[in-house]
Design goal:
The mean pLDDT is 92. The strands form three sheets. The protein has a six-stranded antiparallel beta sheet, covered by helices on one side. It has ten helices and 15 strands. Strand 10 and strand 11 (281-282) form a beta hairpin. 40% of the residues lie in helices and 23% in strands.
């Protein structure tokens, strides 16, 4: 799998740009900070997922002052040549086409272009909030099984409806200690049943994914860790922790009055945690920053390996200035553990010096929103 050509019009900092990375090996993209290197990586990632890798709203992807943005691409996936085109509108519905056919749902795109992104802010996977780790699991789950996107969409829909109902109870005059109006009780029962169904299915899927991830992350962390022989007492491990005890239906019933008082759903898979440990201690609070960064790299590398095994080819590697945050030993360890570059397309951005690399297949420089050979 590889990206053959990418054309950008009014995307982020680019007025017009054409990018043709090498189909295999490393395409090195250089340029000063702020030149637009990450914008290029973001464009590739957007065409794979229809989401900003920085969590930005769609309108912010359009160049300031432009009426819209256009992304056109050619992708080689197995023996198929695919075109993926997207038109972003600041006010209105974005349009996406695959091989000239309009895309009806996001999940119909998933799988045509697979990417693995390494970025400096991956450290938030370990140090950040539980939401970052849930997103990591969900994104990887969908990359392996695109149909699971429907499960996440349904969870989001159910939570929005349930939370709106909880808020309406308080605004309609209900107060703690009073009987909940019968119509609200009846409707809450319906949404609780839906949340139980989708929530338990999602938890089962996440738990199965963690079981697959655990040994792969442990090996990746061991391989990336620097120093002498690996210390088994400092092995990386993970576990999935649900945010309730007993059944989800029972937990929702027990939390109902608290949910009504707060106006938000306080139990469910949207509150679960992926616990990451090094040497049996929580990595978020007990690991050094070097260990945390190595674990974050291991999470990305492990996810890449699982997806590659599932689809039978290596996703496109997007390495966005990742070496700026690594010491030389960890940078060399990462390069040594990337998939075979003879069969993998890698796009690497940098503003500074690079660790020892295989010879770059091609080089591109970004200056003032332009791509220069």
């Amino acid at each position: 799998m590889y990206l053959g050509r990418l054309e950008l019009t009014d995307f982020r900092s680019y007025t017009d740009a054409v990018f043709e990375p090498a189909p295999a090996g490393i395409t090195v993209v250089t340029g000063a900070n702020g030149a637009g290197k990450t914008n290029l990586i973001e464009a590739v990632a957007y065409l794979a997922t229809l989401k900003s890798l920085r969590g930005a709203p769609g309108a912010s992807l359009i160049r300031a002052g432009a009426e819209g943005a256009v992304l056109r691409s050619q992708v080689q996936s197995q023996a198929r040549r695919i075109t993926i085109d997207a038109t972003l509108n600041p006010a209105g519905r974005d349009r996406v086409q695959v091989n000239g056919q309009a895309l009806r749902r996001t999940r119909d795109l998933l799988g045509f272009l697979q990417v693995t992104v390494f970025a400096p802010d991956d450290l938030t996977l370990v140090k950040g909030s539980p939401g970052a780790r849930r997103d990591y699991l969900d994104d990887l789950m969908v990359a392996r099984q695109p149909r699971r996107d429907a499960l996440l969409t349904e969870l989001d829909r159910v939570l929005k409806q349930r939370n709106a109902l909880l808020k309406s109870a308080f605004s309609s005059g209900w107060r703690p200690g009073r009987a909940v109006p019968a119509d609200i009780v009846t409707t809450l029962d319906v949404w609780d049943s839906k949340l139980t169904s989708v929530g338990e299915e999602l938890v089962a899927a996440r738990t199965a994914l963690v079981a697959d991830l655990q040994p792969v992350v442990a090996v990746a962390y061991r391989d990336l860790a620097t120093g002498s022989a690996p210390d088994p007492r400092l092995a990386a491990s993970m576990s999935y922790q649900v945010s309730w005890t007993g059944s989800l239906a029972e937990a929702l019933a027990a939390a109902r009055e608290d949910d009504l008082r707060r106006g938000v759903t306080t139990v469910g898979p949207q509150r679960d945690e992926l616990l990451l440990e090094i040497g049996g201690l929580p990595a978020r609070t007990h690991a050094s920053q070097g260990e945390q960064r190595t674990l974050a790299l291991a999470l990305r590398l492990a996810g890449h390996r699982l997806v590659a095994a599932d689809i039978g080819s290596s996703p496109v590697l997007l390495l966005d200035d990742v070496f700026s945050e690594l010491d030389p030993a960890r940078a060399e360890a990462l390069m040594a553990n990337l998939p075979a570059l003879a069969d993998t397309q890698a796009i690497l951005t940098t503003a500074g010096a690079l660790p020892p690399l295989p010879a770059a297949a091609t080089r591109v420089r970004v200056e003032d929103g332009k791509l220069l050979a």
